[in-house]
Amino acid sequence: MADNPIQITKAKSATDIATIVGLIGGFGLVVSAIFSGGSPKSFINIPSVMIVFGGTFFITMMCFSLQEMLRTLKTIMKTVSYSSRDPSEAAIQVLQIAELARRQGVLSLQTLLKELESEPLLHKGMSMVVDGTPGEEVEVVLKKDMMSTIQRHQKSASVLKKAAEFAPAMGLIGTLIGLVQMLGNLSDPSTIGPSMAVALLTTFYGAVLANMVFSPMAAKLERNSGAEAMVNGIYVMGAASVGRQENPRRLEMLLNSVLSPAKRIQYFD
Amino acid sequence: MADNPIQITKAKSATDIATIVGLIGGFGLVVSAIFSGGSPKSFINIPSVMIVFGGTFFITMMCFSLQEMLRTLKTIMKTVSYSSRDPSEAAIQVLQIAELARRQGVLSLQTLLKELESEPLLHKGMSMVVDGTPGEEVEVVLKKDMMSTIQRHQKSASVLKKAAEFAPAMGLIGTLIGLVQMLGNLSDPSTIGPSMAVALLTTFYGAVLANMVFSPMAAKLERNSGAEAMVNGIYVMGAASVGRQENPRRLEMLLNSVLSPAKRIQYFD
Amino acid sequence: MADNPIQITKAKSATDIATIVGLIGGFGLVVSAIFSGGSPKSFINIPSVMIVFGGTFFITMMCFSLQEMLRTLKTIMKTVSYSSRDPSEAAIQVLQIAELARRQGVLSLQTLLKELESEPLLHKGMSMVVDGTPGEEVEVVLKKDMMSTIQRHQKSASVLKKAAEFAPAMGLIGTLIGLVQMLGNLSDPSTIGPSMAVALLTTFYGAVLANMVFSPMAAKLERNSGAEAMVNGIYVMGAASVGRQENPRRLEMLLNSVLSPAKRIQYFD
Amino acid sequence: MADNPIQITKAKSATDIATIVGLIGGFGLVVSAIFSGGSPKSFINIPSVMIVFGGTFFITMMCFSLQEMLRTLKTIMKTVSYSSRDPSEAAIQVLQIAELARRQGVLSLQTLLKELESEPLLHKGMSMVVDGTPGEEVEVVLKKDMMSTIQRHQKSASVLKKAAEFAPAMGLIGTLIGLVQMLGNLSDPSTIGPSMAVALLTTFYGAVLANMVFSPMAAKLERNSGAEAMVNGIYVMGAASVGRQENPRRLEMLLNSVLSPAKRIQYFD
Amino acid sequence: MADNPIQITKAKSATDIATIVGLIGGFGLVVSAIFSGGSPKSFINIPSVMIVFGGTFFITMMCFSLQEMLRTLKTIMKTVSYSSRDPSEAAIQVLQIAELARRQGVLSLQTLLKELESEPLLHKGMSMVVDGTPGEEVEVVLKKDMMSTIQRHQKSASVLKKAAEFAPAMGLIGTLIGLVQMLGNLSDPSTIGPSMAVALLTTFYGAVLANMVFSPMAAKLERNSGAEAMVNGIYVMGAASVGRQENPRRLEMLLNSVLSPAKRIQYFD
User: I need a labelling partner for C252 at 20 to 30 A (CA). Which of A112, B75, C141, D263 fits?
Assistant: First the structure.
């Protein structure tokens, strides 16, 4: 392959169906369990919905700012239709660029820059290399960039984690309100059951919100951030290697050190 | 823009309405849930208020000193009417100063120092640069300064976190007192309900205090501290760069590495 | 032994019976406790099974991707029939190679490479040494490789940890659904007991799944990962030492520093 | 001030009333809540006291040694009558010494050594400087000293934290004993209430011990340790600076970097 | 003392009675509370014992291997009859050796090596010094050795911690089994109490096992590991100092930096 004219492959986009399937499957099971009990209506109570959903929203807003919550929402949307490059593909692309630079000189990368715009970090690194920035400097700047990206993702995940923390707390507060109201008014024993049921609803809502929405979403964000960081790490290695004008074979060996066995590449015979 | 006479922009001040809106919204929902139950009076019990609010106050005081608790209160007040510079603005201001220093020499910054007094860290850094301190030394001193600021913020947040830990504990203690009193006196069954209701009130107060006041406040303090650290980090990078007499274009590249994509600046053409 | 012609010993494979014995023993005790109560049927409830097992599966899938869950399953299978080299054996093998390289030159290792293929990291390191890579470089590349392996293991363990976190949560959600249904329908007191029993089943399933399957499996994965990292650490030390053409006696001393007292080797006289 | 003959100010001693006031206030509220219920006697049960107080004592002793528990007790006593130097005062004292060393030579500090004996770390550092130890060495030794002090404090705090962990556990064990005894003997319904009340007492004792005594004490120890470390950090900076014969103005700048804005000093004009 | 002929003092062995006294005291209180209730038999239930003790054993075995559990048991035995050198004694011994090496040359330590065999790390370090290994190398190897020892101790502690985690979980599982069996069979109300009592027994066993056996044992192991690491750290400092042929007075100063004030030594006038 190393003898063909170099051609940069495109990143494939993949919809992350795991999030959607998991969400639908999980809620489907809960809803069917509710319906199988006969009276689905008893699981809907507007004041309980208000105190758990609204309360969690307002308290999470206290912790952050509205802007950060909207940004998290946007990140969640991106999570559903996630497109992450395959690490192997990224590694091969980086090796193609490194080989081109080795054969035709670093300036020949100029023509590639436009094609790389879909991968901002790689584009930035290669632009720096073309501008003659030394490899060490390229590595320092790209790593800083990568770190700030990871920190931004962690911030979005931390909004969801806080929400996952406050939802059961609001559920508990709602249940305590219901219990105090019920206990202060025990004259008619026939109302105890339904009152208790309503009081428990907020705990139920809180548990569902936290464990079936916020926690998994936060975990997914962190996972996607890790996957992106892996690909970006490959780009940083590649740009630094080209900037240092190293042998692409050494780069291949380094890349294979971070790739999982199943993803390892063999670019040079 | 780089050709205009240099003019330092002022930091915009912004009230952080998220804290107030969140607080009012959250408490509004809880209070309306209480009123919708008909007997809001049953949610007020002076001894319960005393043991949870007073107890949390006294135990938190045991952990710290009165002085630290007052300082935390002051920090909370500052949190409500928070004014943090936008990172982009801070970056542009730093670049303006760097360009001025590049064109007219470091001593020309002397005249700017007064204007920078609203941003203590930037002022300190630039004063050091004007005094001829080398860039490395400027960076070391400013980073130490930044670290101590972050530590002070964490201390204030830790006061709130301790309070958030002790409030539910005092609620539990109050509820246990109520339960023991009630159980020792079961002769009249009609009093069981109301006694239980009163016993649960301290748990309710504790949960509300911890989850709707102390925890979100602590999270907000940490978030604001992070935002301030970001802006201060930009000032440190700028002052160190000017102190090392580097090319402002390199500074711009470094600053863009830490700014989020939406906040990135393009100061030089 | 140091005077014999060098012969590379093979790694012994050992089935890890602890996992199987523990699993069977634990479940045996639980099942016998259930049977001793007379009515084992009351412990099986299909909707409860669905909501806990299915729910945990779907929510864990939301956090990761189907591919990662399958990979974790494969890793679990490997855990049951685990074959890890004994650290002492690995150390002796490394010393044998180091002595061979010392006596007959690094190139003589060429003939050994094929035999080492069952130990990928050692093979990679020795190939690099034969290719003339300097010892420092060998160490850097192998350590990167080792770190990525550890990270991959931690990812598999984190899938199991998330499942161990969500299983009791789904159990709680199922129990809350059961309680709300029961409390809304208290007319016939004779049904309260059985309804409560069914409601508690999901909590029971969640506790069993989390504490008797997912948590111990995650701990086992981490333990095996640590054992493998220990052996790999020995390979890295060996390859780096051979690459630096150090005295094998120094290598023996270093290896003994990381081996536990009972596993220490005395290869030279 | 810099022109006056140098005079070393003494550290002011301050009793830490926050601990005592907090302790008395917290217990006062709990006791008054108990008395307001009418039957304070029902809150005292000797076997319950034995199992929680004694049990916590014995189990904590299992974790440590009697010697360490006594040392922790001594440290707690010191916490109540705590005397920590004000960081500003410490900084000024250090600057006074630095200026003296600058003007009259390092050997002139010989006469000061006796006065510094109340501050062991400063004394040690200045003795080393007078003995001609280079600044880097002074810094290394003092930092090691400071670290070991912090570790010792953390050990004392960890004794209290363990106690705070075991007290509620012993409370739970006591309550379970009470419940099992009560449930096995339900023939006379009139005894159920009082038996439950007694059973709950151990939970109550455990919660009070952990949250109103051990936890706040541990937090206070850590806070005092932090305050002492701050002052010691100033001494280390000072001794190292004098040892390196640096300009005291640079020392002032460094000290102000770690002091909080309100505590900053302006020693030179 | 520095003028006497050098004589190496022996380490004193001390039985750690705190563990035994704590264990007996704690269990004594629990047992006496049980007997004071009149019917100690109701606290013994063989199936409950099986599910908690057996279940915890099997699940912990799943996490580790039988070999590791046996090693932990051995370590626990050692904990009971623990003999740790006093740090002061260790420091004095190290200074004696350092002085001997200073006066009569490093080779004179040869004769001491046999006596040092009871302290493996000191023996290893001094052997290396006698063999002419440079001080830096001695420090690196000994620190690696010390780190692996600490890691092995942490592994044993982690076995106990896992057991402390699983014991209450098995208790909960047992209680849920008991509750489900009881609730499915409510026809005879007189059996409810005793059935509940039996169901709670597993929770009781789990709480006792975790909080009165496994947790304190794990804490003790960690504490002993820390004490041993302190003494070993003194040996490392000593061996490195002798290997670097430094002045023993400098070593004394360094040793005093890590010793607690009460343990500080004054070996040289």
Answer: C141
